[in-house]
Amino acid sequence: MDGIERPWNLLVPMKKPELVLLRWAVVGTVLLCGCRKGTREEERMRPSSYDFAPFKAGLYSATKTYFRGVERDVDERVYCFVLYTSGEMSSFFPLFMTEEGLDRVCAEYRQHSLYAGDTDEEIHEYLRYNPEDSSHYLQCLDSSEDLFADVNRIGGQMAAVLQSIDTGHGWQEFEDFAAKTEDAIVDVLKRLSDEGVFGTGDERNKIFVSMMMGDQDDSVLRLGRRINRPAARADFERNWAWLGEQAEAQSTESGLP
Fold first, then answer.
1. What is the CA radius of gyration of the chain?
2. pLDDT for 157-168, tens place per residue?
3. Nearest-angstrom CA–CA distance, 127 and 118
4. How many angstroms separate the CA atoms of 113 and 199, rounded?
5. Is the pTM of this model over 0.85?
6. Most buried among 1, 54, 66, 199, by the most CB within 10 A?
7. DSSP letter at 171?
8. How far, in Å, CA of 28 to CA of 174, rounded?
9. Are 12 and 246 in contact, with CB atoms under 8 Å apart?
10. d(CA 59, CA 85)
């Protein structure tokens, strides 16, 4: 996860933002599993009867406890705090990014041939909001495992509910449940923000709070706008626009449509 030996994971907008990331992620899961049907209780649950209250309560408590620990133990300038999740939202862990951590990663990446033609400023922009390139990625993953165990148990249940939905006659039920899942996460992060967990006033405006996945589409902008006031999301939106411009320029240079 040091970002050097694996392929470059550039956080850029998708060519077709109308595609729903959750849709193809879960479709892939179902196909790989052969659409297997089991007798587990979570597979028998229907989306219409699913109670999100335990998930929201657990996520609220775990996230608040973790970020309080970051405030207490991390002597660096935090500029981003996200819930990092898989495509089908079956597991979550908290991830923070700091200015000092970004500097360390950029200094390391500067030695890689992939960035030979980029300036230091460009490397910072490429990596700034790329969650897997955060210098704190492994630290967050390991240190939050026990704290988020119940949250991820419920997350696995939610993923099973999604997989149980018959999409042969349409995607409405699936998309309704996915939207409710997103609403639950947004509600928790907004509540924590309103309580001042991520800071108040100018301090809060320096931290972008959201949910992220490994490959982002424009949904990350929608989530950011639901959770953050304009000043708190301005830097992320500026960076996202810059990444889009770079992707378009690279596409033009390579002759791709």
1. 19
2. 999 998 889 999
3. 12
4. 39
5. no
6. 66
7. S
8. 14
9. yes
10. 13
